[in-house]
Amino acid sequence: MEMNDTAEKAIAAGLVPTTFADWGLTDYQEAWDKQEDLLNKTVAIKTENRVNNTNKPTPNHLVFCEHPHVYTLGKSGHPENLLLDDQGLKDKHATYYKINRGGDITYHGPGQIVGYPILDLDNFFTDIHLYLRTLEEAVILTLKDYGIEAGRYPGFTGVWLDADNEKARKICAMGVRCSRWVTMHGFAFNVNVDLDYFKNIVPCGIDDKAVTSLAKELGYHLDMEEVKGKLKNHIAELFKMQLI
Fold first, then answer.
1. Residue 231 near residue 20, CB atoms below 8 Å
2. What average pLDDT does range 88-103 have in this prediction?
3. CB 72, CB 99: distance < 8 Å
4. In this structure, which of 58, 71, 145, 206 has its CB flanked by the most CB atoms within 10 Å?
């Protein structure tokens, strides 16, 4: 990774240079392959540094995208939490993948901001729990921008509304993978997403809590680019990133 002027200025200011990209509506497998490629390149630099006692800087990436209808099952997930058979998936124009992140089953689709930070946490902090809490905080702050109070549900990752009572409902799911302190996968923030697709799964393996979206809570569709801008800025501020 060669240092450009922007990156050098960011480091001088105590910020971590991070490349931002919006992949738009992207096939899930394609996005997964791209993430793996970015992660592997970063791990290769770290391995080279260790073997050769060098100090080449490692890149950091923050990616936003949306996916066509897809269900993904994490390493610790239970296949029975998908309530559709192959024909049911075809009828819903949806695909299904077993993937290498943590967590159970979730849904991705249009109108949902899917965030994939491919970060070398050695450039930030080597604490995966703090990493998850910081991503959650960025979503919580974004919701606050729209007048919605959100928080965390004890024992579960993600962002919830009314987490302290029987109306608890999830608005953002999370599941990550970390290799040599390099992250991939990330979060799925429901903005204008079609919530009916969640009826075909037991979301995150939790069968007694509802799922919601920003549009449902506010009663109108949001400008996705506006929401992305607010969320991106909160992530950058919390992680002390300079987005490039």
1. no
2. 94
3. yes
4. 71
The reported pLDDT for the residue numbered 207 is 63
Residue indicated by tokens 């979206």? 213
- Torsion angles phi and psi, residue 167, rounded to 5: -90, 10
Catalytic one among 65, 172, 178, 204? Answer: 204
Tokens of 29: 């497998």
Q: Is residue 222 classed exposed, middle or buried when 0-12, 13-18 and 19+ CB atoms within 10 A define those classes?
A: middle
Which of 6-10, 154-158, 195-199 is least confident?
6-10
Residue 204 appears among annotated catalytic residues? yes
pLDDT of 72 > 80? The answer is yes
- Give the pLDDT confidence score for residue 1 in this predicted structure: 47
Q: Are 99 and 73 in contact (CB under 8 A)?
A: yes
Cα gap 155→157, rounded to integer Å: 7
Q: At what angle do helices 224-239 and 128-145 cross, to 10 degrees?
A: 140
Q: Which of 195, 235, 233, 236 is CA-nearest to residue 212?
A: 195
Paired strand residues for 113:
189
